[in-house]
Amino acid sequence: MGVKLILLFLFSFLLRLISSNQSLWLDEGVTARVVKTFDFLSIVKKFSPFDFHPPLYYLFLKFWTDIFGYSEISLRFPSIIFSILSGFVVYKIGSLLKNKKLGFWAAVFFLFNPLIVYYSQEARMYMIVTFFITSSLYYFLKIQKSKFKSQNENLKLKIDIFLMNIFISLSFLTFYGSIFFILAILFYFLFKNQYKYFLITTFFLLLSFLIISPLLYQQWINSKISLSEVKNWSLFLGKANIKNLLLIPIKFSIGRISFYPKIFYWLTAFSFSFFVFYLLFKNLKSKIVLFYFFIFPIFLGSIISFFTPLLQYFRFIYLIPLMCLLLVNKSYKSNKIYMILAFGFLFWSLLYLFIPLFHREDWKNLSFYLKKNKIKEVYMIPSSSDPLIYYYPKIKINSLKNCRDRIIFLKTKKIYVIPYTANIHGVSYQSCFNDKKIFLEKKVFRELVLEIYKIN
Fold first, then answer.
1. Measured distance CA(359)–CA(352) in Å, rounded
2. pLDDT tier for residue 17 given thresholds of 50, 70 and 90
3. Whole-structure pTM over 0.85, yes or no?
């Protein structure tokens, strides 16, 4: 098993390097701007109050990029590493609960999972919080299995409790969405009458909350302002509905891939997802604790989404390790089922990695086009311009929100518009041309459009 395990992790690491230099997209552009332009204190004081995540990830990436630079690969490399580390923890959990063979297959499912592969190449906090939560789950399960008899074993238990709560605290300080998993642990302790563990974990959670509460309050105030100013933003945050709920098992199974015709996409996606979740639910009685930790955060997140929209599949990506552990079953007499499932996950991952159509927004080639044609200014939503500025720092950004008066007095013959997120902000930018426009052409750069207008 040792050689197989080494080869698995080596292959998984090399797999994640494929297309890892693809274009940054909007959120990654924000990440790049933050770690490049703010110092450590300014990240907390100047940036984080207007963001919607805790600052721990940005602080870590600031430290990383100060050493290794700001290229796409450098920005994404921590996510690659933490996804591999998460896979190792999945292996350890599988070995702890069953045996090394089942731990190995659980790690295979996780490391080949297409949604994990996608977010392993994203300069955001999702892989780091997955590692923290998976590690906390590992120590939680060690605690549940512990029946110490000696003083030495008692000391090991105390260390496991401490480490579990450290990882819980780190997860909360990295991603607020981890609270759903943390609450699942607290409810479990109450249900099992493990009041000592409940009090210790509550103490660590409250301590983390107190540390970040001044910032969290500022973020809450600013988020209310942003929701009122950005007209259609709430529509994209994940309202509680059947579609967003169904996307969780589908994206957990096939990743971020989407294609036309939609009927074929839904048929293919549903078929493979049904196969995955059929195996997940098989012999559930022997894995009821894991299933509880998988389903409770989704249930709680769905309820909260009726009041604050957040029901998006990627917010629950830290549950995929649990999904992979639920998929392994000691009743299988051969590896055939495991092989089919592993190759299915790998197939969807390879489609994403090798077909540029499924990659992120192509700000890189859009920027190259602007540079090549010596275009020095564009009209767009300024708050969405970070990835463009990352690739083209000298570009001038004019706001689409108040462009009417400026365009009237322009002497230039051509206006370049990037309408990206204009619909979210409720900006009818066509009115800015005051009925004096002649549409020339449209350039498309994978999920991005550059519109070129001629002014009479």
1. 7
2. very high
3. yes
